[in-house]
Design goal:
Blueprint: E1 7-12, H1 17-27, E2 38-44, H2 49-62, E3 67-74, H3 78-81, E4 87-90, H4 106-109, H5 112-123, E5 129-132, H6 137-146, E6 156-158, H7 161-175, E7 182-183, E8 186-188, E9 196-198, E10 203-204, E11 207-208, H8 209-212, H9 216-238, H10 244-258, E12 267-272, E13 284-291, E14 296-298, H11 306-325
Parallel strand pairs: 1-2, 1-4, 2-3, 4-5, 5-6
Antiparallel strand pairs: 7-10, 8-9, 10-11, 12-13, 13-14
The structure holds (2S)-2-hydroxybutanedioic acid.
Length: 331
């Protein structure tokens, strides 16, 4: 069997907790397959570069047969860092602290994504795909993609998969069914405290959630607010924002993009809106997606009842507000 060409994967904030929790899984063959060599591009701000040497040593010491190379780059040389990369996971950013909303970070983190977008356009491979994790990820994604107009819009994703996974765990626990029995679970809108985890279209064991869970007050109340507030709850309990679960969700996003979505299911990511479901175009918003392994589409036919509509309108209004706050960063 001939060995396929290596896939180059760049991770910014590579020495941070999310980066550290991602790299070994990316290198191990778990994400791109046991026969696909991976070259990792580890990117960090200059003061943290030394830590990358230690991570490089640990990657070597795992002796992963799939790890075909490691490139270390500082964020002052982003074009070098993104040279020929096929996947980019943008983690590098300041995390929020207890008591903050993710949108409070927008003027701190937003500017990072202008040069990032430009460098991706200038240097990445023609098939590059980008997953934005750094918060507020929807609007950071919008900023980055706006500075890379030659990179098609369908290559850009912001991470709502963490919310999908959180919502699936809540529904599984409430119904007493395994998490794998939950499907078709969309997250609409912003990765923020206004997001809408859509229990109306979700299923448990192929049946509507609303028929399996009779406590509809819980679905509309505690379920939605628990998912909306889960990131804050983790920060309060841990004294630091989610890391392992965020890394896991970033890698789940990559896998969902490159793997055909089973019929009757969807995966959640925020993408550039095209007007589907009455959501204004030109925002990066969570939508129900399906992939054929190469291309993805917004799944049609999701039922939007009055409750869902009001939730979606609220989170989309917040996205517009965030976009307006960073107008000066959008070319
Ligand atoms: C999360 O959802 O855990 C992350 O986006 C971190 C945060 O600030 O909540």
């Amino acid at each position: 069997m001939t060995t396929p060409a290596p896939i180059r994967v760049a991770v910014t904030g590579a020495a941070g907790q999310i980066g550290y929790a991602s790299l070994f899984r990316l290198a191990s063959g778990q994400i791109f397959g046991a026969h696909r060599p991976v070259i990792l591009h580890l990117i960090e701000v200059p003061p943290v570069m030394a830590a990358l040497d230690g991570i490089h040593m640990e990657l070597d010491d795992c002796a992963f047969p799939t790890l075909a190379g490691v490139v270390k780059c500082d964020s002052d040389h982003l074009e070098e860092a993104f040279r020929d990369v096929n996947f980019v996971i943008l983690v590098g950013s300041i995390p929020r602290k207890q008591g903050m909303e993710r949108s409070d970070l927008i003027r701190i983190n937003g500017p990072i994504f202008t040069n990032t977008g430009k460098a991706i356009q200038a240097a990445a491979a023609k098939d590059v795909r980008v997953v934005v994790v750094g918060n507020p990820c929807n609007t950071n994604c919008l900023i980055a993609m706006s500075h890379a107009p030659d990179v098609p819009r369908d290559r850009w994703f912001a991470m709502t998969r963490l919310d999908q996974n959180r919502a699936a765990a809540q529904l599984a626990q409430k119904s007493g069914r395994p998490v794998a029995s939950v499907s078709n679970l969309a997250i609409w809108g912003n990765h923020s405290s206004t997001q809408y985890p859509d229990f109306v279209n979700a299923k448990i064991d192929e049946k509507p959630v609303t028929s399996v869970i009779s406590d509809h007050a819980w679905l509309k109340g505690d379920f939605v607010s628990t998912v909306q507030q889960r990131g804050a709850a983790v920060i309060k309990a841990r004294g630091a924002s989610s890391a392992a679960s965020a890394a896991n969700a970033a890698l789940d996003t990559v896998k969902s993009i490159i793997t055909p979505t089973p019929a009757g299911d969807c995966f959640s990511a925020a993408v550039y809106s095209d007007g589907s479901y009455g959501i204004e175009s030109g925002l990066v918003t969570g939508l129900p997606l399906s992939s054929d392994g190469r291309n993805w589409r917004v799944l049609p036919g999701f039922q939007i009842d009055d409750f869902s509509r009001s939730q979606i309108d609220k989170t989309v209004a917040e996205l517009k507000q965030e976009r307006d706050t960073v107008r000066d960063l959008l070319p």
